[in-house]
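Our consortium's second objective concerns turning raw sequence data into structural hypotheses that experimental partners can test. To show how far this objective has progressed, the report includes one record in full. It was chosen at random from the queue rather than selected for favorable results. The single chain below, 581 residues long, was entered without modification.
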Amino acid sequence: GGSHCGSQQSSAASVKGFLFDSLPSSSASYLPSRLTLVKQKMGDWRQDAADRDAKLHQMDHVDDVVPDMVKTFVVYFYRHIREKNVYEILSMYETSFQKLTDRFYKASSWPTVNAIAPLVDNDHVFCLLYKEMYYRHLYAKTSPTLEHRCESWDNYCALFGVILHGNVNMQLPNAWLWDMIDEFIYQFQSFCQYRGKLTTKTPEELEMLKRCDQVWNVLGVLNYLQALITKSDIENTLEKEAKGEDKFSANDGYDFDSSNVLRLLGYFSMVGLLRVHCLIGDYHGGLKVFNAGSSQGGLLTLEAADSANSGMFTKVPGCYITTLYYTGFSLMMSKRYVDAVRTFNTILMYIARTKQMQSRTPGYEQILKKNEQIYALMAICLSLCSHPVKFLDESVSQALREKYTDKMAKMATGDMQLYDELFSYACPKFITPCPPSFEDPTVNYNQEAFRLQLKCFLTEVKQQTILPTLRSFLKLYTTTSISKLASFLELDEYTLRTTLLTLKQRARQPTTTPGRKVLDFEWVSAVDIDFYIDGDMIHVVDNKVQRQYGDYFASHILKCERLAHDLGKITEVLSGTIAEV
């Protein structure tokens, strides 16, 4: 069994291991007050958790047969963490663990923590780290039970508790720290989906769910993420880096004088908050989190990812893709199609550039899936607003034409079924953070949040279905009467005036200019025409901007120069080799 969420404070106070120098007497001071309120409301949950732990402890296979290779892995993994050997830790975490999984545990769970604890001197904190990997593997390879979900939540509470309340002195790879936050939110998302499927639950499971109302509670999840951000003081670190007073990104987040664990967990928690806000439909809240870190060296400024100061998050591929995907989706749902397209273009270029390198990583299939989803979202944005097509890289534009030319043409004419199809395919798996009503177990609630977001999106699309046709007619004239245009569109004059006002309103979008924060925007025109109404006459002004080819040729000149430079190096090497022969 593991420590439970109602008692992580006492667990933290009892830690005496190599991973922490000291623990303060009052650990609760670092937890937000709202989380304290949640814990006060837990009632009988603490006793329930203790009873559940005792039951699971009896079920644990203490005498599990652990292969010698796995024992050796655990012993060396423990040793490298003690010695702060980050490179060896990363190698064992990404490579050795995966190889042993494929050989011994491809369709089953790893040995329980009780089976490996004697190999690591029963070190409490290492056991928490091991269980974090144990449950992540269990979620990926098997179907976790309610008990597993509760145990994993308890383990995260205990792990984050000792990190928040202790004086950490260990160094862990950035990839692992990102995976902790990523998996923490994934398991929260998975629990919300699981909890909403009432029709598949037995009466015993429903009763257990009622008693587990504080497990993966949205308030607790948000507060742990915020607590990590606050305790790590990461926002102040990013401000110092923007002023040149800190080398956080330049050093990949590592500091030889102190641990990187809390700082990086705080940093990645900012991305985690963005994701959680997006999953519950709070797009402005997500962008506010993004905006807080959008300083030089921070999260992002919606600029090219090739910048040397583009931030620490660009050095962890999973974090980079997650950040831009949820940011772009939030911008799209906020009707900021220009910024959304620029964001999607940035991440698609990154995936295309690093695809070969990522092909050897375990998450390669997920990257490919996310790549296809982003192209679908890009098609939606450009069908609703064609203006930002000029921001697309040539390779992205060509790939988009190959994938969605026909569908985009149909969507431009108002094909609601295609909008529904692409949105359903590419959107995040929305969640309902509140527990469902257990009084009527014949209804599933796991799709309720998705249906609500889809309804809001399609309502917005329906309001714009006639706008492309109206815009195409306006391009034919410099001056025309309302009655004449109404007859062409088969509308009455009042409806046409309303539609013209809608087009006028949609023509201006909040857009972030280069180098500024995501919420520091200006209202700019997002269409290639402008017009005004004088009495019964419509006066049209063509605002079409001539395409600028300078950037296109400049980028190809730079590519040519780099290619020539590389060929020159190859020639020198070959010449030296031939001379030696």
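The partners drew two points from this record. Residues 1-47, 52-63, 295-309 have pLDDT under 50 and may be disordered. The beta strands are 479-481, 508-511, 522-525, 529-534, 537-542. Both points have been shared with the crystallography group to help prioritize constructs.
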